[in-house]
Amino acid sequence: DPDSGDNGRLQYSLVGGQTNEFDINEKTGQIFTVSVAGKAGTFYLEVQAADQGTRRLTAQTTVNVTVDSSSSSNIVMLVLNQKISAVERKRVEVQRVLEEKLGWNVYVLNIYSKESDRNSRSSTDETQVDIIAFDEAHQEVPAEDVKRKLREQRGAIELGLQEVFSASVSAAVAEAPAAPAAPESTAAIVLGVLLACTFIAFLAYVLLDLTRKRKYGKQDLVKKVDIMEGIDNPWADDKNGSLKSLEKPEHMNN
Predict the structure, then answer these.
(1) What's the rounded Cα separation, in Å, for the pair 227 and 207?
(2) CATH number of 76-173: 1.10.8, 3.30.70, 2.60.40, 2.30.30?
(3) Rounded-to-integer distance, Cα 78 and Cα 107, Å
(4) CA dihedral 162, 164, 167, 171 (to 10 degrees)
(5) The Cadherin domain covers which part of the protein (predicted)?
(6) Which region among 66-80, 142-156, 181-195, 240-254 has the lowest average model confidence (pLDDT)?
């Protein structure tokens, strides 16, 4: 709006569509998600801009927001030593500083405290800011490149944020925690362990059985040898169990 004064000061609002899932910054027109977790598809919003003159002039447009169920791997976490309430109030200014120092289009996706208690929003002095950067071709900048640039420009970023918060600010890149294993992966691991244990038990049984057979086989051989040694001539034992002379009868010699 080219007018000056109140006639040129615009206020944005959501006047129609699926407004329960979104919110808007009335000063900047930036739209935020509120309750689209787990949802996917296209949402339609009617956005109005109105000046603050005596006779308020308005204009409206439709904004189509497409929510993709897939998650980006290029989200970077930045930790600020500021209260979450202060960071939320300065969200736009924080984003502006990051864009100026990084040279990319930066979007602040989420602001939250590590504390789970909602009362900590006013007392915690450490806030995590999730950001994602886009280059001039509107392509996501790889997370590693964003982290490298954040570390290189850390001093300049902290000076810029110091002006925003009117206090000394430290900005550190945080590493994302390892994602928990999926139930399918956990089940596969457990099954693999069980199969391995079963195989080891079977192998141990086979080895034990072979050892036992060898042991008893040797004992049987020793017994047979002892029996053989206890009989002077086993061939002298006839069917009735009596011993006979091995001398051939005379008629056999003929």
Answers:
(1) 30
(2) 3.30.70
(3) 12
(4) -50
(5) 1-77
(6) 240-254
Q: What is the pLDDT of residues 25-65, one digit of tens each?
A: 898 888 888 777 777 788 899 999 999 888 888 999 999 98
How sure is the predictor about 220, in pLDDT bands with cuts at 50, 70 and 90? low
Cα distance between residue 205 and residue 188, in whole Å: 26
Helix (H) or strand (E) holding 132: strand 127-134
By the 8 A CB rule, do 81 and 169 touch? yes
- The 3-state secondary structure of 44-71 reads EEEEEEEECCCCCCEEEEEEEEEECCCC
Check whether 241 has a pLDDT greater than 60. no
Alpha-carbon Rg for the chain, nearest whole angstrom, is 42
Among 76, 176, 172, which Cα is nearest to 126's?
172
For the whole model, what pTM was predicted?
Answer: 0.48
Name the 3-class secondary structure at 130. Answer: strand
Same fold, 7-67 and 76-173: no
DSSP state of 236: G
Q: Where are the chain's structural domains?
A: 7-67, 76-173, 180-224
The mean pLDDT of the chain is 78
Nearest to 153, CA basis, from 99, 110, 109, 107: 99
